[in-house]
Every structure is written in C-alpha cells, then in structure tokens.
Amino acid sequence: MTQACRRIIHVDMDAFYASVEQRDNPALRGRPVAVGSAGRRGVVAAASYEARRFGVRSAMPSVTALRKCPDLVFVPPRFEVYRAVSAQVQAIFARFTSLIQPLSLDEAYLDVTQPLLPYPSATAMATAIRGFIHAQTGLTASAGVSYNKFLAKLASDYRKPNGQFVITPAMGADFVASLPVSSFHGIGPATAARMNALGIRTGLDLRRQPLSRLLRHFGKAAGFYHGIARGIDDRPVEVNRPRRSVGAEKTFDTDIHEWLAAQASIHDLAHKVWNRCQARDLTGVTVTVKVKYNDFRQIVRGRTGPDAVRDAADVQQRAALLFAPCFPPPRGIRLMGITVSGLRTAGGMPAPQQLALFG
After folding, report:
1. CB of 142 within 8 A of CB of 9?
2. Contact 356, 98 (CB under 8 A)
3. Which residues are part of the catalytic machinery?
4. Span 95-142, pLDDT tens digits
5. Which residues pair with 141 in a beta bridge?
6. Which architecture characterizes domain 16-78 according to CATH?
7. Is 12 annotated as a binding residue?
8. Helix and strand numbers, DSSP H then E, in the chain
9. Binding site annotation covers 111?
10. What b/e string do you get for 48-61 counting C-beta neighbours within 10 Å, with b at 16 or more?
C-alpha cells in the first residue's frame, strides 16, 4: 500500500500527567502544576499548560522550573492512574482500528485506512475519538490527520491543546517547507544544530540538499531526512514492536563519590532490572551502564557476553565490572543506570515481537 493511500491519525493527550492531576484535584485547576519532585535533584516529568506559559517543560530540573515559576505546584507522579487512563484511551482506539502503534502512555499512531467503523473520513474518526476520550476520561486530546506518520504527528501539534488539523497530500511538501527542522519529529536538538551549522534551517533548506550531501553528513538517516523534506514517509504503523531493552536508573539526593555507596546502588538496580526481566520472561546478552555526573556529562559503557544473564547476581556482577573503572570519579555522580539488551526469552529464543500496549 503506497503512503498516498494511507489514512493516519496521530492522537496526543494534552499535558497528560498534569491534566490527570488537575482532573482529580479541583484545587489544582487553573494553577501551574508540575508532576515530579520539588527537591534539589528533582526533575519535571510533566507540566500543565499554565506552567508552560512560564517556560516550564518536562525533563527540566525542578530548581530551574521554580525559578521560572515561583508559584509552581509540584505533585508526585501516580503512574498506576496514568496507566489506567491510558488503557481507557487504548480501548477507544481499538473500536476504530486494529492498527495501533503507541509511542508512550499519552500518544499513538492509528492507521484507519480500513476502519472498523463506517465513518466517512479520517477527519470524522479523529473528531469522534477525541469526543469519546473527553466523555470517558474528562481529558482532552489533540489529533493530526494525514497520509503518513511524519505529517500526522506534525499536524497534531499544530492546533494544541484540544485541537485537530489535517494535512492532505496536496499540502504536504509545502507545509513542511516553512517549518524549522528543529520542529521535525525524528530530528533531535543535536542533529538540528548540525543542520543549522550547514545552513539547513527549514524544511525548504533541507529539500534543497542533494541526497549525496545528506549521506555525507548524516549517514543512514539521510534517506529519511530527504523524504520528509518532500512530505514523504513510507513507514507503516507498527502494531508489533519488539522490546529492545529492560533497564532502571537512580538519581541520588546527594552526589556519590565512593565505590561502597555505588555498590549498594548497583545491587538495588540489578535486582530491579532482573525483576522486570522475569516479569516478561526475558533475559539478554548485553549489559550497559550509565553514569551521569553533577555537571550533567555522562558516560555509557556496555559489554556483550557469550551467554545471557542468568539472574540478578549475574546482572550485578557484569554491571559492577563496567562501573568499576569510573571510580574514583572525577566529579560527583548524580545518577547511575543499568540496562539489559540483546533480549531473548528465558528459554533461550530471541525475544518475540509483543503487542505494544500503553504502559
């Protein structure tokens, strides 16, 4: 099926975590709210639109957020509630199509080219989906409708919050041309900066680049960039997506400097990762560790073994060997993390593709 024949909807819940908190606590409505911790090492997980007006954003250190918005109200995250609401939203999606690709708890792509319900258009379906979401959860969602995933996601951002926008095949290339490349899904801040340094600031600038130049500077991603600059994106909505890794990390209230303190955290993280592996009947051959220093620089080290990890003690031992060269550290460590990848079932077969669900 060619991309021009597809009808794709991207649905994105509006300020999801913060909106759930405002829904459940009327005292928070209309106030700048951040989901996260207000502590010295806290990070904003999500911000309400009232907070965003002050420049508060997700992943921002809490101290920075409070400087921008002294009246900011912090509430602790309740992931079990967010997952439950997300399951409600997923059930609504499933009424319309079986081709659903969740990206996170609060957003997903839907391929409604062959819908399960007889709506006259993808636009009508998107309107109906947003209506059902509001009726059943009390929350709002924005939607983008287009003929491919890239444009559908751009469209859902265009009328936020609680809005909807359609990009038709006739509009695609021109719509992309006027936008900054930094707004493109799939082009992160570092890549956008590299493009800007090369004189590529808008979609039109990107379209003018020969594929050979993009290949020279961006390698295997060049084909994707070359296509989206023209409104082309052939990626299908992927229902079955393999889990790539299982991990856990910990941010410390106080920087750590000593190997003894690190060993205690390695033990806890290894057991947490292994418990998550066991819950999914998975193991893996690669262990990767992450260390983030108090200046936010970080290092990542990994090693692939001939055999898959056997238990928590094995994860701990392999991780400790990777962490050990980092001590004594050149500066205080604020975060440590462990990830197991190269996944396969505990019985030894490669990990099967699993139905991607919210949460």
Report:
1. no
2. no
3. 107
4. 999 999 999 899 999 999 999 999 999 999 999 999 999 999 999 999
5. 13
6. 3-Layer(aba) Sandwich (3.40)
7. yes
8. 13, 14
9. no
10. bbbbbebebebebe
